[in-house]
Amino acid sequence: MNTRLAPYLRVILPLILQVVFFQYVSVGGGWWYLGFHLLGILLLPLQRSGLSILLFSAVFGAAIDFTCHGGGLFMSSAVLMGLFIPIVNRLLAPREGYEVSDQPTISLMGSRWFLVRTFLLLFIHNTWMFSIEAGRWDLLLLAWGKATASTLLTTVIFALTLLLTQRKTRSR
Amino acid sequence: MRNLWNLITQYHIALVFFALQALALGWFVSSHGYPRGKWVKQSLAWQGAWNQKLGQWSRLTELDALNRELLTENAQLRSLVYAQENEGRELSIYGAQVVRFTWTSSANHFILDKGTKNGLRSGMGVSQNGIAVGRIIETSDAFSLGLPIINQEVEWSARIGHSGPVARLVWNAPDISRAQLQDLPRSATFSPGDSIVTSGFQGYFPDGLLIGWISDETPEFDGQFLTVGINLAADFRALNYVETMSVVDWESIEALSQSTPDAGP
Lengths: 172, 265
What we know:
The structure holds two protein chains of two kinds.
Chain A: H1 6-20, H2 37-42, H3 50-68, H4 73-91, H5 106-109, H6 111-134, H7 140-165
Helix pairs in contact in A: 3-4, 4-6, 6-7
Chain B: H1 2-10, H2 12-30, H3 38-58, H4 63-85, E1 91-101, E2 110-112, E3 125-128, E4 131-139, E5 144-148, E6 155-160, E7 166-170, E8 178-185, E9 195-198, E10 210-214, E11 220-222, E12 225-232, E13 241-247, H5 250-258
Antiparallel strand pairs in B: 1-2, 1-13, 2-5, 3-4, 3-13, 4-5, 6-7, 6-9, 7-8, 8-12, 9-10, 10-12, 11-12
């Protein structure tokens, strides 16, 4: 694959897959929401500014809202996750900081870094999304249960996807 | 001025975040949790076409074509039967296929493969095998978007049996097999297993279409009214071929209703 195009494809492809296929996936009676477009946001380069991550997240979320009739729900959740991406990146930064060539993938940053980062960010996204979607206080506990289950399963799926699709390179 | 500019540049991410959140949540709140508006029509046209393609790929036998023919024929027969049973009052019924249905959210919706060019319009009721399922809220040329009974943003007018009292039917997420009949007079007499049917007051459905049955839960008292649990008749996980309907003379009824002295401007 052309190395210049790869970073863009890595971000856009999950969004296309979500719109075309994964929006129809309904597993476990709503207990597992697979937001595959979120993988695209999570794979935005580490050097991206907080502002551009926010804007990317908003566009991705709005695209899903537009195609899945979410009415702003996915945009709101993606924007919240986008706000936390630089914060979580700073929290998990190696002692010597990130290198210019670092990318947020398992092959470059290691599986532990990827799993913790993905879990934290997806948890923020899913908790917000399921809570708003619940619409009633008495459904909040159920919503948080769904958010936790979805986060765990989606983190595993994202890790497997990267393990299966990315070349093995050095791990930090 | 310089201080204001410094403040904006210092907190620009927070400002953009709040602006985007306001936009997204404003969108969500203005749509009352379910999609409507101009953008829905465009989205519906694209998504409906894609959903239909996906559906075509998955259809491996000619059984589907046969089902469609039967659906159309069934719709015509139901129209005739209704007209005969109701002294000439007409009911337009059209067959359609569900190309998308969500049942895991609290604001569920469905998409049908027929639109305005097939005679469908917003406000039509949707049923499956004589059981009320939902209503259409938006149509494009070739597709329609609808809200099922299992959407907690909408209410339905329902009656106990064919001559019992009328009450509001609402769905409380997340159980898709149960709903509640609210504002029922305390004097109402009923037993578990009694059928709940459409009242016909809202104009989406004719009267007498089955919605479900009274469950064996103890009714809740709320002042002068009762709230009763309902077991819904429709199997929302198995929706496929449905019928859309509208009472043909509903516009005349609405016009009469508007012309009464109490009716507002």
